[in-house]
TrEMBL record:
Belongs to the aspartokinase family. This is Aspartokinase. It comes from Faecalitalea cylindroides. It is an enzyme of class 2 (transferase). Keywords: Amino-acid biosynthesis, ATP-binding, Diaminopimelate biosynthesis, Kinase, Lysine biosynthesis, Nucleotide-binding, Transferase. Its EC number is 2.7.2.4. ATP binds at residues 6-9, 205-206, 216. GO terms for molecular function: aspartate kinase activity; ATP binding.
Length: 440
């Protein structure tokens, strides 16, 4: 068996966390290849190394003395090195990095957190060090060159029985360092898993996987032990964030499972993400997630259904203002467009004026302070009455639904409610499909 093992920033934040990583890695010989993020926060008042590196780059760009910021970064790495008794001459490389700061671009600067962390981790584990810049290849359009990356990775596996690999970056088509979005270490691990056809991609973080609802709203929600990629995508989009969304795609097609695990509680079962599995969920739903602060534009026009392209014309106006649309619930002669309030608030009146002038609707109005809650579960389509049960429970608790949307794959039902009912809605749905099911 082959496991690609990725440790997030909180898992490598200090020497004590390095020790936990070593215990985890050494406990299973299948953990041959380790991916690390840059050191994260050690406590609530601490700084992430990557944040400090972005700050260092800002000082460079504005020609401001950056020595204080650099010393914070250097001290963090030296503290880990000294506490673990490592021999890596990292202080010399750090000093060289700072001396050459003005010759570097932002991508190279902010990637050094992962680079230096991987150097230290490789020595601590007794593994080889492989630089992501030499392995992950981007094309000119910034997509991954899978064949080139696979070939280079395979060659390194022949060279090293075990190695540590920095996350977050790779090499561009012109040989420069190119970074992923923030949180991109998750993507790096997924790339290695796909290229090496791993049996599982382990993603170690500071939580024991996904929960069925936000624990700040629902007390002690159930753990999600198994979830499909499709279900995860729905929940992640609505704010249930543990894993970088883009990390799903490299392994989804190969159906390589992602196992979310807790570095601080390695005994916990965690969450397994896999599209095709034999797990039988005891509940009709897999999870609940939601977001607040949406706005709805309601448009009515007599005989709209006979007017070709009416909705498209409205959407074109929104597109001109770079407004992303969340949902479009519709009727025969009316429809609503749900958008993020912060995206549209600066241009709302201009957009409404254009819709009135260009499309001459009989009625147009807005509704603010809408929250969206998605109830997600692949089991829902196989259980008749699920929608009725959900809507009935909300009605019984005096929660007014202002919008309903259901995905064509029938794995999610999204309702819009007033912001004041946001937390209550999540609690009611959880009680309906989980608490009562457990009691029955």
């Amino acid at each position: 068996m082959l496991k690609i093992t990725k440790f997030g920033g909180s898992s490598v934040a200090s020497a004590s966390q390095f020790k936990k990583v070593k215990e985890i890695v050494m406990s299973d010989p299948a953990r041959k290849y380790v991916v690390v993020s840059a050191p994260g926060k050690r406590n609530g008042n601490d700084n992430k190394i990557t944040d400090l590196l972005y700050l260092l780059d800002a000082h460079r760009q504005y020609h401001v003395d950056a020595s204080n910021v650099f010393n914070l970064i250097k001290d963090r790495f030296l503290e880990i090195k000294n506490e673990l008794g490592l021999k890596q001459p990292i202080e010399k490389e750090l000093d060289r990095f700072y001396t050459n700061l003005n010759q570097m671009n932002q991508a190279e600067i902010v990637s050094r957190g992962e680079y230096f962390c991987a150097k230290l981790m490789a020595e601590y584990l007794g593994y080889g060090f492989v630089d992501a810049k030499d392995i992950i290849r981007f094309r000119l359009d910034k997509t991954i060159d899978w064949q080139a990356t696979t070939n280079k990775l395979t060659a390194k596996c022949a060279q090293y029985k075990n190695f540590v690999f920095p996350g977050f970056y790779g090499g561009s088509a012109n040989g420069q360092i190119q970074i992923f979005p923030r949180g991109g270490g998750d993507i790096t691990g997924a790339i290695l898993a796909r290229c090496l056809n791993a049996d599982v991609y382990e993603n170690w973080t500071d939580v024991s996987g996904f929960l069925m609802a936000d624990p700040r709203i629902v007390k002690d929600p159930e753990q999600i032990t198994h979830i499909t990629y499709s279900e995860l995508r729905e929940l992640s989009y609505m704010g249930a964030s543990v894993l970088h969304e883009e990390a799903i795609f490299p392994v989804k097609e190969a159906n390589i499972p992602i196992h979310i695990l807790n570095t601080n509680r390695p005994q916990d079962a965690g969450t397994i993400i896999q599209e095709h599995n034999n797990y039988v969920n005891p509940y009709a739903i897999t999870g609940i997630a939601g977001k607040t602060d949406f706005l709805s534009i309601y448009i009515y026009k007599k005989h709209m259904s006979n007017e070709i392209g009416f909705i498209r014309k409205v959407l074109s106006i929104l597109e001109a203002y770079h407004i992303s649309v969340e949902h479009i619930p519709s009727g025969i002669d009316s429809f609503s467009i749900v958008v993020s309030k912060k995206d549209i608030e600066d241009s709302l009146y201009e957009i409404l004026a254009r819709i009135k002038t260009e499309l001459k609707p009989d009625e147009i109005k807005t509704q603010e302070d809408i929250s969206l809650i998605s109830t997600v579960g692949k089991n829902m389509s196989d259980k008749p009455g699920t929608s009725g049960k959900l809507f009935g429970s909300l009605g019984a608790n005096n929660i007014n639904i202002v919008m309903i949307a259901q995905g064509s794959d029938e794995i999610n039902i999204t309702v819009g409610v007033k912001k004041k009912d946001f937390e209550k809605t999540i609690q009611v749905i959880y009680d309906t499909f989980v608490t009562k099911e457990k009691q029955s």
